[in-house]
């Protein structure tokens, strides 16, 4: 699996992501600077990591979404290329129009940095094939603006088409406002686009991939992607 | 020419920042405030004197970057 991790000014999770990809896929990703106009030839997976691109100026992800490299990312998505967008990455792909909706300020107005539980809603995507549907995983979040909102028609469409992939839940998989730490509509933590090749999620699976991290629940996402490309090859 | 683009949240979109400001104003004892919504103002200098071209450029700027039209409205004013 040849991955490319995008690097924007103010991004700070790119090395965590690169480490997780190298650890699980056994291959170092290419780091691609935002001012580039092309992705490396043969890229299988584009990863947009977390952080604070452009200091969250204007709106989270707004400036990065208009960076030169994003034209190449859009073309890559149009051809069916897989894009994993985490945290600020999720905000960037929403601002770029690759996913619907917006990540608003957390309902409680606080920056939240802790582990949360996610219910994996489906296992038949390249991103979640390493899990079982209904499985609960523990992964960290670290964001101030992760409160997913969209208009009623968009939410109905996302739900109707099974495009909500991860939902904030209790440790035993119950969706409950007490476990929806940022107030996201329908406890949405991650969604895919219509074609199923772009995943945006607020939590950080890359931070739970090695035993030394205290939890390896995030590993399934990367291992699933590796499997996906192995089978496709 | 000078121009101003004002970006505000659409009605119905929750504005926790506005709510927090509203609460702070109330705790300051400033009376008569029913509610607060927070927005953004962009003061922009326009090259040249073509009013219509300026409006068109500002509309493009607002649509493409200054506002996220999923959640925000914008208003453009061009002054001399």
Record keyword descriptors for this entry.
heterodimer, A: 233 residues, alpha/beta, Rossmann fold, 9-stranded mixed beta sheet, two-stranded antiparallel sheet, 11 strands, B: 80 residues, alpha+beta, Mth169, Chain: A, 3-stranded antiparallel beta sheet, 2 helices, 3 strands
- The rough form of chain B would be described as elongated
Low-confidence stretches of chain A: none
- Domain module count of chain B: 1
Q: What strand line-up does the widest sheet of chain A have? A: 2-1-3-4-11-10-9-6-7
Structural class of chain B: alpha+beta
Approximate helicity band of chain A: 10-25%
Task: Give the mean pLDDT of chain B.
Answer: 94
Q: Give the termini separation of chain A.
A: 10 Å
Count of alpha/pi helices of chain B: 2
Beta-strand fraction estimate of chain B: 25-35%
Topology at a glance:
The complex is a heterodimer of chains A (233) and B (80).
Chain A: E1 3-7, H1 14-25, E2 30-33, E3 45-48, H2 69-78, E4 82-86, H3 88-95, E5 102-104, E6 112-120, E7 136-143, E8 147-149, H4 152-160, E9 164-169, E10 188-192, E11 198-201, H5 219-232
Parallel strand pairs in A: 1-2, 1-3, 3-4, 4-11
Antiparallel strand pairs in A: 5-8, 6-7, 6-9, 9-10, 10-11
Helix pairs in contact in A: 1-5
Chain B: E1 2-9, H1 16-27, E2 39-45, H2 51-66, E3 72-79
Antiparallel strand pairs in B: 1-2, 1-3
Structural summary, described in words:
The complex is a heterodimer of chains A (233) and B (80). Chain A has a single domain, classed as 3-Layer(aba) Sandwich (Rossmann fold), CATH 3.40.50.880. Helix content of chain A is 23%, strand content 24%. Chain A is built from 5 helices and 11 strands. The longest helix of chain A has 14 residues, at 219-232. The model of chain A has no long low-confidence stretch (mean pLDDT 96). Chain B has a 3-stranded antiparallel β-sheet, covered by helices on one side. Chain B has one domain (2-79): Mth169, Chain: A. Chain B is of the alpha+beta class. The N and C termini of chain B lie close together (5 Å). Classes of the chains: A alpha/beta (233), B alpha+beta (80). The A-B interface holds A 58-59, 62-63, 66, 95, 100-102, 104-107, 109, 149-151 and B 13-14, 16-17, 20, 64-66, 68, 70-71.
């Amino acid at each position: 699996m040849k991955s490319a991790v995008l690097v924007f000014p103010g991004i700070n999770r790119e090395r965590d992501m690169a480490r997780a990809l190298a650890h699980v896929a056994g291959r170092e990703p290419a780091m691609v600077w935002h001012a580039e106009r092309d992705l490396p030839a043969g890229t299988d997976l584009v990863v947009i990591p977390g952080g604070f691109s452009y200091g969250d100026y204007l709106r989270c992800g707004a400036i990065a979404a208009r960076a030169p490299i994003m034209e190449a990312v859009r073309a890559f998505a149009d051809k069916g290329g897989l894009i994993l967008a985490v945290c600020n990455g999720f905000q960037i792909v929403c601002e770029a129009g690759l996913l619907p909706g917006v990540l608003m300020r957390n309902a409680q107005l606080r920056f939240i940095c802790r582990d949360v539980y996610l219910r994996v809603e489906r296992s038949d995507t390249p991103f979640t094939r390493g899990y079982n549907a209904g499985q609960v995983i523990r992964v960290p979040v670290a964001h101030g603006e992760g409160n997913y909102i969209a208009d009623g028609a968009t939410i109905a469409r996302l739900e109707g088409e099974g495009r909500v992939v991860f939902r904030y839940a209790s440790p035993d998989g119950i969706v409950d406002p007490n476990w929806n730490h940022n107030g996201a509509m329908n406890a949405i933590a991650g969604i895919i686009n219509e074609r199923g090749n772009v995943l945006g999620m607020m939590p950080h699976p890359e931070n739970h991939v090695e035993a030394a991290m205290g939890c390896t629940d995030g590993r399934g996402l990367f291992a699933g992607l590796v499997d996906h490309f192995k089978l496709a090859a | 020419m000078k121009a101003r683009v004002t970006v505000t949240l659409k009605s119905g979109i929750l504005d926790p920042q506005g709510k927090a400001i509203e609460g702070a104003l109330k705790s300051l004892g400033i009376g008569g405030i029913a509610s607060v919504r927070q927005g953004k103002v962009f003061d922009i200098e326009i090259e040249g004197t073509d009013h219509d071209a300026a409006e068109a450029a500002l509309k493009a700027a607002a649509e493409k970057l200054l506002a996220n039209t999923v959640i925000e409205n914008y208003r453009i004013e061009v002054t001399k």
